[in-house]
Fold this sequence. Notes:
The protein has 123 residues and is an alpha+beta fold. The protein has three helices and six strands, in the order H-E-E-E-E-H-E-E-H.
Amino acid sequence: MARMDSYVEYTLELLEPLGPVQARNMFGGWGLYQGGRMFGLIAEDRLYLKTDDTTRPAFESAGGEPFVYDAGNGRKPVTMSYWTPPPDAVDDAHALLPWARRAVEAALRAAQKKKPARPSRRA
């Protein structure tokens, strides 16, 4: 398992008022989880929080930027549903908390939308 860097540790400290948050190493970055649901990610020392149709407009109007990665092989870049919080919230736990709560709520709504797995048919 990869060792957390200082930015990941700092972000976890900022998110303490949200409740228990775990960071898991993934694809060269870190996934942030609460209650088993991924609500954020850290890539290249930037925090991104989960959005959906309900919360994305607030992130956009507050100056957030989407997480975009290069799909490679000449394909178009891929924009994901994770956005940076406003610049004034990045280093302030009190200002970050409402944005993190929105992300946790978006992750919960996404989990509720997923269809339950079909039971397998066995003869």
